[in-house]
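Morning run. Coffee first, then this:
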Amino acid sequence: MEPRAGVSKQDIREQIWDYMESQNLADFPRPVHHRIPNFKGSYLACQNIRDLEVFARTQELKVDPDKPLEGVRLLALQSKKTLLVPTPRLRTGLFNKITPPPGATKDILRKCATSQGVRNYSTPVGLDSKVLVDLVVVGSVAVSEKGWRIGKGEGYADLEYAMMVSMGAVSQGTPVVTIVHDCQVVDIPEALLEDHDLTVDYILTPTRVITTGCERPKPAGIAWSKISCEMMEKIPILRSLRHREEQTGKDVTLRDGPRSPPGSQAAPSTARSPQDPAPPESVSVPPSSVEIGNLPRDVRVSQLKRALSALGVVPSRLTWQGPQHRAFLHYRDPAEAQQAIACLQGFRLGASTVRVVLARQQRASDLGGGHTAEPLPDHRPAVAGP
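And here it is:
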């Protein structure tokens, strides 16, 4: 199946999706439109990765959470390799490290390789973690034998790779593999490619292993001029990376111009200096505070601080109440607090899914038994000038 002349990327996507559905090549979840399509024979295609020398010598690999890549995730866990999976839509960070429980059976490893396993058996990996990815595995809607790739159109695989470059986790020499059905291997006009598009070095199908020999450069980092303010608001870790690159003097101007991220207009500080008198008992928790409950009994404040940093939701202050299995995160204004709540939904610490709510108005005496941790490092982007 070859695309028609004069087509766009979206034309090719629609043609692939329609063909896979009409020929009953698609597998759950269906319909495959607007997805990285799962297909019959995806597990067989995934098994071919064992024939690649790059997989044999890989210690740490990043595999996208798409359904057709489940077989690769399972092989990685069975081979005791370090498996990193991007968080869905990058809402709560960049990576999760999949950590099976000690003595995990084959059935447990299979669960770990699924989307449920990503939720239940993972820990966030922060920007400061020393990650060195040996192999990248991505899903595709279409790919050419030259290594040119088309995703589902949202740009997350391209952005994830660019973010890994910015973190120093990958280099131009890091191999990229994609898993597709044979019908997804098509000619793609070179005119459709852009500088931020990720190319692939190996294509695995149920019947073939294709070495592309692609020499087109991969993304050299985040193309900030392609990033919208809306995307910055949705992806906290992107704001942290932008701040880091701005500090090194790089041009981080966004596609739609400078704009302060939500909550960047700092509210007046409520912190007391040592000589200030203690607040009266009637002082309430400010509306810019977030309560985290259901904390595991054995969790430490340092673990929570590391997780918050990894998720890009660092508060200005943290009040720890370990005996009550809760903590309060104090942000500069309500907008930042709401953003943190959105990012922390479904967040797990240890074996527990924590409860995250906007802190109800409480008297200061209700906070008894807690202590305020040292202010966390501020990873927020600098406020853009007028």
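Residues 9-22 form the longest helix (14 residues). Good start to the day.
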